[in-house]
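We now fix the convention by which a protein and its fold are recorded. These numbers are not coordinates but entries in a learned vocabulary of local backbone shapes. A record is reproduced here so that you can trace the correspondence yourselves:
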Amino acid sequence: MEDEIKNSILKTGTSILGIVCKDGIVMAADRQVTAGNLVVGKNFRKATQINDYLVVSWTGGVSDAQLLSRIIVAELRLKELRSKQKPSVKDAASLISMLSYRSIRQFSAIPSIVGTLIAGVNEDGTFELYSIEPAGSIVKVEDYDANFGSGMPYILGLLERQYKKDISAKEGINLALEALKSSTQRDVGSGYGIDVFTITKDGIKQVIEQTIEAAYKDKK
């Protein structure tokens, strides 16, 4: 019965990443969604801007990620209304950490398992990147991270060799592209699109929005 439940869970093969630069954060993700060996979606935005100062990337169950996203948007807005100031990036990461911790430890036939990268700009203009693993632990990222997506080994392998501590956001965009290209070429759970965001003191911008389409050519 346990194996049957595990095999029936909708899972996502995923490539997400965050890169800390000297002048901002670069966040990127692919768009493919899989259920086992079957591709069930080719245009799912795994990196999204959830308000005017935060970008979040998810890996894990699609429904779990969507629900968690809606909850944190609402909770952060309530906190802002009550305190009369925007929650910090760390506040948002701590909220996700708490929800992830509770979800995976409550008894359920199909537990919620979601890994998260969250980056944003604080009111003082500083920017931060946090990684929350599926069990709920939270880590402030000082260089780069890919959480626990299926493309993680390929992404980290490339970033380990090419990342530089004083990299600019412009350089980070190109590095993120190369990391995602590496992952989508080798990881069967990743592909079909690329989204890249920059988070700086000037705000959030989506700098790349691409689809990856197969092209079939007749052999002449």
